[in-house]
Amino acid sequence: MVHNWKDDLLQNYQIRKTFTQKTAFIEHLSDICGERMHVEESGKLPKNRNIVIGNPDTASVVYGAHYDTCARLPFPNFITPKNFVIFLLYQIFVGLLMVLPVLLIDILFTTLFVWLDLPDGIDLFLSELVLFAGIAAICLLMTKGPANRQNANDNTSGVVTVLTLADRLADRDDVCFVLFDNEEAGLFGSAAFAKAHKTVRDRTLLVNFDCVSDGDWLLILASKPARQTVSYNDFCESVRRRCASTEKIPLFATSMNAIYPSDQMNFKKYIAVAALKKTKTPLVGYYMDRIHTPKDTVFEDENIAVLTELFADIGQFGL
């Protein structure tokens, strides 16, 4: 009987942010997966617990996704993988919006320090201290703030995809499945995994699923080592052919003409997968929205079904 990972996670284990919440999720997976699964621990600040199903050192393909939950932010993380200018401008805009209150508070305190006629240098030191404390508070909010309780797309969708593939390929010993910890804090979990498994980092194909359930355009972003394999074009043709009978549209990209910040960046040979939407105007083009906010509730079952079909047998292409 195939496990219903979607309902299981969305109803019972959607929030995986604190140590206790992650522990409950890990124990639940262990009860289901049994001896196939183990946990690799590393680091202290932060402590990483990567969930591994299979043997990464003998696998020809590693399927990955991050399982940690992001913090709830006042603005969505708006991503435009094929439009670097918009991507950069938006990040700058949001950064300024979040820093603006800190600057206003710093101005008020600086004015107060001047009014108090403090000794030379003290007012400047206190002003810089207020500014530093404000920026530190923003960084903590972005990484350690309250969990975003709605995270269907980011990244419950990726976790469900990996676990669905693990069920489907349970009888295969040439594949491995990894759920990375602490992606939201700075890709720490995948960095620790890459350091512990240098062969995987340098030569094994990693297929990383991050935010794959909200959008009809399926981003398939491949690094140069992945594209250089002799069968990559055959794989792309297979994806086009299979998607033709669905409402999903593949969007092939390279690490040179698209940007998608996620765990695959710690590996050399990878395919990053995400679901995107498209604006009617070419000014923005393909985009991802809603994530990191309470509006992240869209979970398109067809996306997971299609991606499972597309990538279940990727090993036959020798990538």
The average pLDDT score comes to 90
Proportion of β residues?
A: 15-25%
Task: Look at the helices and sheets and give the structural class.
Answer: alpha/beta
Distance, first to last CA: 31 Å
The major beta sheet can be summarized as: 9 strands, mixed
Compute the number of helices.
10
What does this 3D model show about the protein?
- The longest helix has 32 residues, at 84-115.
- A hairpin with a 5-residue loop joins strand 1 (37-42) and strand 2.
- The protein has 319 residues and is α/β, with parallel strands linked by helices.
- The protein has helices at residues 5-12, 19-33, 84-115, 122-144, 152-168, 188-196, 198-202, 224-227, 232-243, 301-311; strands spanning 37-42, 48-53, 61-66, 175-180, 205-209, 217-222, 249-254, 270-278, 286-287.
- The mean pLDDT is 90.
- Helix 5 crosses helix 10.
- It is globular, with a radius of gyration of 22 Å.
- Strands 1, 2, 3, 4, 5, 6, 7, 8 and 9 form a 9-stranded mixed β-sheet that branches.
List the helices and strands and how they pair.
Blueprint: H1 5-12, H2 19-33, E1 37-42, E2 48-53, E3 61-66, H3 84-115, H4 122-144, H5 152-168, E4 175-180, H6 188-196, H7 198-202, E5 205-209, E6 217-222, H8 224-227, H9 232-243, E7 249-254, E8 270-278, E9 286-287, H10 301-311
Parallel strand pairs: 3-4, 3-5, 5-8, 6-7
Antiparallel strand pairs: 1-2, 2-4, 6-8, 8-9
Helix pairs in contact: 1-5, 3-4, 5-10
